[in-house]
Amino acid sequence: MPNKETNTDFEVRSLDTICINASELKHPWWYNFKYVLAGTLFGIVLTKAEVISWFRIQEMFRLQSFHMFGVIGSAIFVGAVSIWIIKKYKIKTMYGEEIDLHPKSFNKGQVIGGLLFGFGWAMTGACPGPLFAQIGTGTTVIIITLLSAIAGTWVYGLIREKLPH
Amino acid sequence: MIDYIQKPWPWYVAGPIIGLMIPVLLLIGNKSLGISSSLRHICAACLPAKIPFFQYNWKKEAWNLFFVAGVLLGGYIAANLLTPVGYEVQVNAKLLTELQQYGIIHHESLLPQDIFNWSSLLTLKGFLLMIVGGFLVGFGTRYAGGCTSGHAIMGLSNLQWPSLVATCCFMAGGFIMANLIMPIILKL
């Protein structure tokens, strides 16, 4: 049995908010197309609400518009109510699995990395989701920004032992 | 109806739909909303280079790559099929006046075409905003363990206080950059 230190799959789950794949079910690969559908809806909303707009992001950080705060705030509200209902009624997935929600543990990365990401967010006008959507809208140069973001993730992986956590 | 879809969607429509992505992903496959991990999976799939951080079974997380492919497709559909001809982004008047000083005049698309284009990629301004900015997004989100979707929306919905710390730091970083540093970069 691999322990915490040697089991990188465990680490994927513990350190990252999002690299959580609790499902133990094995499905054929084409089952993943339902996530393309979900992603498409997500991309349409991000674009139509101008969440992916560099202008909206500048307005948010300069307190010149309520729009982005409204979007993020109401998304959290609906998400929180949904999770509360799922927990209260112990709702299961469509395959009958129990829904698994992982707690997040604090480390210094959330402060230092958070600030660095904030800088990048204001500069590019995009967090990772909008980068993909911006390319889709036809601003093809953002492919370079996305490659640079992948490079940033790679460099983090390379030097993470030396960074304070 | 089609008129309403073609106009920019107000926050009280968009926000709740984004929030509903959380139960949708949980119910269709026990997945927690998050985008920035897709960047890590791409590293693990394409260039793991024996770095321990990229040694894991990325194929198990492939759903995330399908999801971001959908986000890209969604951007295409929204821009090409759900947006009227002659559309212009409404920008706060004060911001618009300020941006004009920096030569940002066009606001017909979601990104200012005066900066975000292929030919300005190798100017100092374009390099800083697109390449350095992109690097900070990838490095910072992974260091923080998530981005706006994973921490701010999923984490806060699940009442995780480390996500609140992360979200406050995202905002603080954005405020510092937009108000103190961006005016210098945009003048370049």
Task: Please describe the structure with a list of short key phrases separated by commas or semicolons.
heterodimer; A: 165 residues; mainly alpha; 59% helix; 0% strand; globular; disordered N terminus; B: 188 residues; 2 domains; 64% helix
- In the predicted model, the low-confidence regions of chain A spanning at least 5 consecutive residues are 1-11
Distance between the termini of chain A: 26 Å
- Portion of residues in beta strands of chain A equals under 5%
Enumerate how many helices of chain A there are, as a single number: 7
Structural class of chain B, by secondary structure, is mainly alpha
Low-pLDDT residue intervals, each spanning 5 or more residues of chain B: none
Helical segment tally of chain B?
Answer: 8
Instruction: Let me know the number of strands of chain B.
Output: 0
Estimated structural class of chain A: mainly alpha
Shape of chain B: globular
Shape of chain A: globular
